[in-house]
Amino acid sequence: MQNFRFQVTHTDPKTKARTGLLETPHGTVETPVFMPVWTLGSVKGLPQELLEQLGITILLANTYHLHLRPGEETIRSLGGLHRFMSWNGPILTDSGGFQVFSLSGLRKVTDEGVEFRSHLDGSKHFLTPERALEIQSILGSDIHMVLDECIEYPASQATAEKAMNRTLAWAEKSLRAWNGLPHFEEGKPAGSLFAIVQGGSYADLRSQCADRLVEMGFPGYAIGGLAVGEARPLSYELMEAAEQRLPEDKPRYAMGVGLPEELPQFVARGMDMMDCVLPTRNGRNGMLFTSKGRLHIRQARFAADPRPLDESCSCMVCRRYSRAYLRHLFVSGEILGGILNSFHNLFFYLDTMRRIRQNIAAGDFSQFLSDFSSSVQGEVL
Amino acid sequence: MQNFRFQVTHTDPKTKARTGLLETPHGTVETPVFMPVWTLGSVKGLPQELLEQLGITILLANTYHLHLRPGEETIRSLGGLHRFMSWNGPILTDSGGFQVFSLSGLRKVTDEGVEFRSHLDGSKHFLTPERALEIQSILGSDIHMVLDECIEYPASQATAEKAMNRTLAWAEKSLRAWNGLPHFEEGKPAGSLFAIVQGGSYADLRSQCADRLVEMGFPGYAIGGLAVGEARPLSYELMEAAEQRLPEDKPRYAMGVGLPEELPQFVARGMDMMDCVLPTRNGRNGMLFTSKGRLHIRQARFAADPRPLDESCSCMVCRRYSRAYLRHLFVSGEILGGILNSFHNLFFYLDTMRRIRQNIAAGDFSQFLSDFSSSVQGEVL
Predict the structure, then answer these.
(1) β partners of residue A290
(2) Which residue ranges does chain B devote to CATH 3.20.20.105?
(3) Which CATH code is given to the segment(s) A5-276?
(4) Rounded to two decimals, what is the model's pTM?
(5) What ipTM does this complex have?
(6) What are the two backbone dihedrals, phi and then psi, of residue A27, each rounded to the nearest 5 degrees?
(7) φ, ψ of residue A48 in degrees (nearest 5)
(8) Contact, A286 vs A328, CB < 8 A?
């Protein structure tokens, strides 16, 4: 695939962790990387100026939402997603599948694709593997995701297998469609296409799905349908079952994860990319991640606390604002509270990934893995 | 008064407009100046970093809100309002009177002061002229406002006169209290105290009120109770009736005004300071002020418009984002829309004041006055 390359730069001797460089049409990303989520065309409450200040290198945008509003044709007429959003870095787009499958009662799946009704106006849409890619291509995504069938947890093995087979059939159609997409002919940066490993909570299905996707040959592989309610040891087991079948020279993306203490755990299992709405969603709800554990800013004990959220954090918020001020904003319902909290949480996630990369490069990752998880999980005292 | 000085630097030959320098304990402010409103401890949605980027020099904070939450004693324990909010520039605090008088049914006025119930929890509070100043002093305000009695519009002359007399009696008490405030003894920056001209919609009362306040001798004078529903020509007439009695060497503050086209009109009538929630409130509601008139970003005609809000604006938003993107954020209910809109509107207000100051200094203010008003009032075509 043109304009796309992945290179492993360091490997950890004791785990599957590695650092890498992901080259995309809009720049190179150091991995492991955390991708903030740009649901409706903004990382909730944060101007792009602040995203740049955070050192964000790659964003995830939701195809489903952008397809419904403002629509990919409007975005095309405005010069594509990067220009529309004024973001010149890499963008990964999901296929829309996950959002559509969340519309239970509003959607119907067949082998051809998924018919759904918009959550906005009830209008009918039909998403096929080809159409999902076409939309992402029109948006001008750097990394396209195939349409997959997501299932609920728990689900029977028969249900999981049926969805896995459909996901595999759609992956095959996607690869064919991808190779025929018109943008290849125009000499434009084409970005890349990632497949998605499904298989529910069954390790053997996960391995089988990975094997068959690898046979097809994709530039990158995602693990989908995890962190949907199952206990974390099972998530890790399922991830390992897929990962051991994936080629080492391709990037791996753990979709929709996770909590801070989980990030190095996924990295230790060979994951290079992650995304999650937790830093911004929890930030808006007043839950802060710090190096000493969780901090619920609403608590009365912070009402006159002059300290920063995290004394060892160097983010814009911790350098300037006190817990007392942030609590005041939160309990007063001021949106600035959610903005500053989201900024800090995103910084914490990005900083965690920076530290992970540094520790892998320095050969200290195993030590980091055990120290970090034990320090960030509890409540701030 | 220590740490407070006002100096007129240029006067317009044809109007009462003038430029000046207002020295406060936290820095010098070029006038005429627009003061954004920091209601609950934030300019809605804008981190202090963006306020600095806007070039804001002085903020208005609401004593009523801060008294109720987090309370002035908490703010004192955290080092005062400047430190609490991490804002090192000048702060003007209102007396709380205007908010209290908005609590119709929840307050009772006597000659001693005003008893009111919190809009938050119904708890009972009593605000006297002395207490209003004490709270502002504890907050560490640069410019304190006296407690005044605000009335509704329309009101009879008898009602207006009674409220004016009470306002005058309170001003006298305030001046006495001010001179005895403990911070004078501690050698701390004491800031300044402004009186407020009331008198309802009666020009003779306005003149009379101004005369008596000037006899008492304050470092600055505000005109209150305007823009409360009366037609603008009447506002201007009432302002003139007060202004002509005010000393030229003291700053004048038109409270709670106004629309962009009104700003130079107030300046032409000798006003040096103004504040208003319109730029942020209208921004959140999708109404943008531009050099070509109002722009309602919700309108469908902006859905694919690649132009900035205002092609002649150099603000962060106009340099980077399209109308199409801002409309998308707004119709999607993304808070980033309100943030970027508020930023632009505040920039427009501040830029208007910059241009006013430049035009006064250059002797071109009269021309500016007529050109500006006609260009900014309509709808953007």
Answers:
(1) A293
(2) 5-276
(3) 3.20.20.105
(4) 0.96
(5) 0.96
(6) 120, 170
(7) -55, -30
(8) no
